[in-house]
């Protein structure tokens, strides 16, 4: 029997490893099962080149719990190790790797993704164990050996017997980690970390992994059904995806994966962390913020790349050239796929727009390269719901009537077509085209688009009277005499008390409403953004709405009101017209609304 102390300068490296990796003890299972997979893959390689001539037999990895002995054992039928290899790889190399690791990365991040890349994977077992045993038989007809260590630098190494080639790692689980002896807890961890490892993994007689997940196959080998089935494997309770993108790059970096576009509606709780990162089929993390562009964090699926440097801190990851290239590649693939769908079947693309639009707008706001491509397939849905316009199509259709005196195209939009119907109808009567912008990102999107698109301005359809939406007309003639205009304006000003409501009198068409309430675009937009949490603008949200009340002096009703001899009734009629207009904008509430209802009943009763 060989006894010895592991050659290491750093005093008591085990407690340091335990402390450094404290944040996620679960990863011991990933590291040890991954090592077993590597050992098995090595044997397959040796067999394929003719070096190993024996029977491969059933190549699988088993994970077993013995609650009485408090052990957790991971067994493989891979290459195994000789006594010399145990001494080299376990006693020497791993520990020099440990020192290098500690010196280089002390105090950076939590280290959960770093361990295996320094040959420390095996030592993750000490995070949960009082003692670790290795029982191993090399494929090269050497005696089997048993190595035992209790987490101090002292170990023993002796000959033993094993029925077959391969390795058992036996963890004697410590008191604080006994949860890992519960079958349901261990099964959950195996399904999280080992679900797609390339060698069958058995636990309690069942195989827990799919060794050939869809992303490892060529797109030409897969049907739509295969992609949908794989989505179900990833998200058993998810709704079927809209479509997907298969990533398959081997130069200048290695990247495979499948990204799915989920159905997104306005009420959707945005869920990030739905993309899982793998490295050669080993689960790494669901925190992919630097690898996947921000706007695509809403996607679901899998990315697998051995070229993403997992052995360094997050700050380094952000500046890594491979990560930047992968990020740019994913953006390009998504833009190309959307453009291809738009070109090949526009109708189907329009039908999906309600769900796709959020990604597209988010991408256009945050990524200029994506914006460039997306300008071709970004759509404005018309308020009728059946017509869609690209920016160029809208410009072609609307420019004649909707270009203002500065040469800017005015895009008229509605955020709530049902409530804003009267305004939409007034705009349509003038031949204007009104589009629907009613998603959670539209307020921010409009502001960005005005900066990035040339000569374009957005105006909500209720921001002014229809005559003023494109170019404000200062004064238009009315049929009333000057003293009648003054009397009417005074009547309204007396009945409409709030200071933030500005009363104005204009001579509009006799078909237009008698009173039109509008909310100027700039202030309303500021308030909307502030309400949505626009940084230091919260004070805007608490300001009263700036409201313009336009009295259409040409409406025939005013001839009747001005001729009315009962002053009290005249005031009630004016107040009711003002309240009706405020109601149409959702600005009449509480006691004012109650008073309006009572007054309306009273006027109807008097009329009878």
From TrEMBL:
Matches recorded under InterPro entries? HATPase_C_sf, HSP90_C, Hsp90_fam, Hsp90_N, Ribosomal_Su5_D2-typ_SF
Q: What are the binding positions for ATP in this chain?
A: 31, 35, 76, 81, 96-97, 167, 314
Q: Which CDD domains would you find in this protein's record?
A: HATPase_Hsp90-like (cd16927)
A single GO molecular-function term is: ATP hydrolysis activity
Q: Which UniProt keywords apply?
A: ATP-binding, Chaperone, Cytoplasm, Nucleotide-binding, Stress response
By sequence similarity, the record places it as follows:
Belongs to the heat shock protein 90 family.
State the NCBIfam families in the record. PRK05218.1 (NF003555)
- What's the protein here called? Chaperone protein HtpG
Specify the species.
Chitinophaga costaii
The uppermost taxa in this organism's lineage are: Bacteria, Pseudomonadati, Bacteroidota, Chitinophagia, Chitinophagales
